[in-house]
Task: structure prediction
Amino acid sequence: MAKSRRKFLKNSFAFTAGATLTSAMAGTLTSCSTKTIVVGAIGIKNMGYADMRAFLRQNNTKNPNNIFLKALCDIDQRQLDQKSAWVKKQTGQKPDLYTDFRKLLEDKDIDAVIIATPDHWHALISVLAMQAGKHVYVEKPMANSIGEAVIMEKAVERYNKVLQVGQWQRSGPHWQNAIDYLWSGKLGDVSRVKAWAYTSKQPLPVKPDGKVPEGVDYDMWLGPAPKRPFNPNRFHYNFRYFWDYAGGLMADWGVHMLDFALYGMKATVPDRVMAMGGKLSRPNDARQVPDTLNVLYDFDNFVVEWEHSITLSQKKFGSSAGIAFEGNNGMMVINRGGWQVIPEHDMTGELQDGVPFTKGGGDLDKHVANFLQCIRDNDTPRASVKVGKNVAILAHMGNIAYRTGEILLPNKNSLAFNNSSKVTDLIMPHYRSPWKLPEL
Result:
């Protein structure tokens, strides 16, 4: 599937906005070579719902039958009822409904799946979907562990499927324009890259375990995660703050922003990783993950700094989340709203050339369009499995450094660290029976 970087960066940057969500059922639904791609969605709340809307927006006046959203899967019957009614209203077709994703994967008409479950399900469902012959659009982080990320890359290679990770900045023209400026050398030598996120979330009060909500298959929600009593704090959305299911803000916004640190600097594995932080802003709330975290990645000739706060609302350069490249000639700042270059003074005190703020946005629809086009062309998507793997590993390294309190020394030639066994133990997840980590 590999083609030149130049070609896949050019693929369909121009996107025609959808006018109305028209019926996706017109004509014969056969294979991905036809104009209609049949899609199933697994995990349909929050980002799953956002992804479904983006997929349906591909059905526009220029191509009214681009995709057919045939099936929905969720462990929460309320979500199935709500979203199936919404899909029928938009398309005129009632989708098939499942509470077990394996049943959805048995549908041979489905060409591709959206996976927007909690993080601890991403790898297993993705691999089983590819084994079933489906292409995969999976939310970030691509995997909930370093080991899973490596396994997913092997699965893409073995089953020859298109996998796009929901790191949709990769399809944003203003993001690419900024990187092209960086690569032009106009910024000079970059010695430091800063990335950050401040999400200003409210405290999460400790709550007692309780009854599983009616219509929820909680055992299926847990899946390979450890068996625990139901607690509302660990369920919809807030699951991301507990190690059993996710990696906190580091594996959430950190994946989005650090992806462009790697991309811009053409880097993969750092030489050293260290982390500092903890539950410092809200020490008594229910979250397990650190609300305050700084991670330092030491590369050969530059450093990458990550910082976040879950509960504070600071803005850097006017943005609560972004990335800055510090070069000899200026600082380039990028966020979802746009990019700019703040110039430095040269050796004589003269101000270098800058770049005024250039607005951007609307990247999710372009990202979905790229995924669909790559299915048709058997091409490599912009947020490929390699892209997803590299930044997932980087984010998990930050969490491992925090959880162990050690300076990590990654071995660039193997899935290991030159550290203690407690570091190595966090590389691979431990699945709860009967679920098994795929072996490829």
Q: What stands out?
A: The chain has two domains: 5-170+367-383, 173-361+391-424. The first helix runs from residue 5 to 10. Confidence is low (pLDDT under 50) at residues 1-32. The longest strand covers residues 190-198.
